[in-house]
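Field log, afternoon session.

UNIT: design team B
ACTIVITY: writing a sequence onto a fixed backbone
BACKBONE:
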């Protein structure tokens, strides 16, 4: 079974994204974090290694860029690929996010059904291939 970590401070977006993903891929387990700090705590657990992280950028406490810096800079965390899913359509945000090696895709909210195929292809990619 595949595991997806959904990091977003919006309960409405959490609900919408969870509903779409569960309908599209019911075999995927979704774990939720409501900010980057909560996600880092989850990822610090030895037994938690998701297959994909869906990440919002604009969040309180620890935003998406701060999360990415900590995540890529930490040798003890698993290196699941990241798909940025954010309301920001700024080219500067997209360029900055794609600078991180772990970021495989940049999507703007709301998630579209055609994006589910892209997300599925990333979550089903062997990690050693997706991270290069």
């Amino acid at each position: 079974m595949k595991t997806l970590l959904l990091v977003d401070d919006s309960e409405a977006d959490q609900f919408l994204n969870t509903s779409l993903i569960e309908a599209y891929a019911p075999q995927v387990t979704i774990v939720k974090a409501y900010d980057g700090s909560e996600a880092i705590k989850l990822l610090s657990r030895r037994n938690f290694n998701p297959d994909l992280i869906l990440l919002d950028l604009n969040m309180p406490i620890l935003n998406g860029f701060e999360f990415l810096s900590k995540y890529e800079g930490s040798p003890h965390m698993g290196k699941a690929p990241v798909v940025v899913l954010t309301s920001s359509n700024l080219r500067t945000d997209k360029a900055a996010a794609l600078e991180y090696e772990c970021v495989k895709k940049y999507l703007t909210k709301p998630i579209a059904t055609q994006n589910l195929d892209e997300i599925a292809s990333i979550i089903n990619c062997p990690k050693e291939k997706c991270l290069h």
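LOG NOTE: The chain has a mean pLDDT of 87.
NEXT ACTIVITY: expression trials, pending approval
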